[in-house]
């Protein structure tokens, strides 16, 4: 499985998703290819926001070596699943990056936890450090739901 998480700046939300998913996938001995990107260019090459790093560190996850990069259309060829962290990012990807695989690969991140809710992970960029804890919790719950669903599918396939 190759998963790409996408937000606007690739310094607050999607880097947390990348680090958390990599951590829990490895814990389950799943060698998935996991990455993140942003739709905007402002922070290319920067490490995750220090509050994102802090909340991950508090949960035993080190994301300090990750670097922001911009989403490219080719990512639709490189990944099996592309998850937008929020509705605005989903809309940008739909409009600005046309690709034949878009409709089959693009999803909204929180729909993996709450199907059809069409909810967004709030952007903590403009807020205080406290906001990052709530964002982390949402991201962790969703990453675990993705992993649980994958393992359930594998079990079902074996039984079939
Ligand atoms: P992110 O948050 O999309 O979760 O990385 C943002 C980071 C920076 C900006 C916007 C959102 N910005 O406008 O610079």
Describe this structure in words.
The chain is of the alpha/beta class and 160 residues long. It has one domain (2-159): Rossmann fold (3-Layer(aba) Sandwich), CATH 3.40.50. It has helices at residues 13-27, 50-58, 75-78, 87-96, 102-105, 130-159, and strands at 2-7, 33-38, 81-84, 106-108. The chain has a 4-stranded parallel β-sheet with strand order 2-1-3-4. Helix 1 packs across helix 6 (130-159). It is globular, with a radius of gyration of 15 Å. The structure holds 4-nitrophenyl phosphate (4NP). The site of 4-nitrophenyl phosphate has 11 residues, from loops.
Strand adjacency order, main sheet: 2-1-3-4
Give the integer mean of the pLDDT values.
Answer: 97
Helical content stands at: 40-55%
Can you list the ligands bound to this structure?
A: 4-nitrophenyl phosphate
Q: At the fourth CATH level, what is the homologous superfamily?
A: Response regulator
CATH classification, class level: Alpha Beta
Q: How large is the share of residues in beta strands?
A: 5-15%
At the third CATH level, what is the topology name?
A: Rossmann fold
Q: How many β-strand stretches?
A: 4
- The computed structural class is alpha/beta
Just name the CATH architecture.
3-Layer(aba) Sandwich
Q: Unreliable stretches, pLDDT < 50, 5 or more residues?
A: none
Core attributes:
160 residues, Rossmann fold, 6 helices, 4 strands, binds 4-nitrophenyl phosphate
């Amino acid at each position: 499985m190759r998963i790409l998480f996408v937000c606007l700046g690739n310094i607050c939300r999607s880097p947390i998703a990348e680090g958390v998913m990599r951590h829990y996938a490895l814990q389950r001995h799943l060698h998935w290819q996991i990455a993140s990107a942003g739709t905007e260019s402002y922070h290319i090459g920067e490490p995750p926001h220090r509050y994102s790093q802090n909340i991950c560190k508090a949960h035993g996850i080190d994301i300090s070596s990750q670097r922001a990069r911009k989403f490219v259309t080719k990512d639709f060829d490189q990944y099996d699943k592309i998850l937008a962290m929020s509705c605005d990012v989903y809309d940008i990807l739909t409009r600005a990056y046309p690709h034949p695989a878009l409709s089959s690969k693009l999803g909204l991140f929180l729909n993996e936890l709450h199907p059809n809710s069409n909810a967004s992970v709030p952007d903590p960029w403009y807020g205080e450090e406290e906001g990052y804890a709530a964002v982390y919790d949402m991201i962790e719950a969703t990453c675990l739901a993705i992993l649980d669903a994958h393992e359930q599918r594998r079990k079902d396939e074996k039984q079939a």
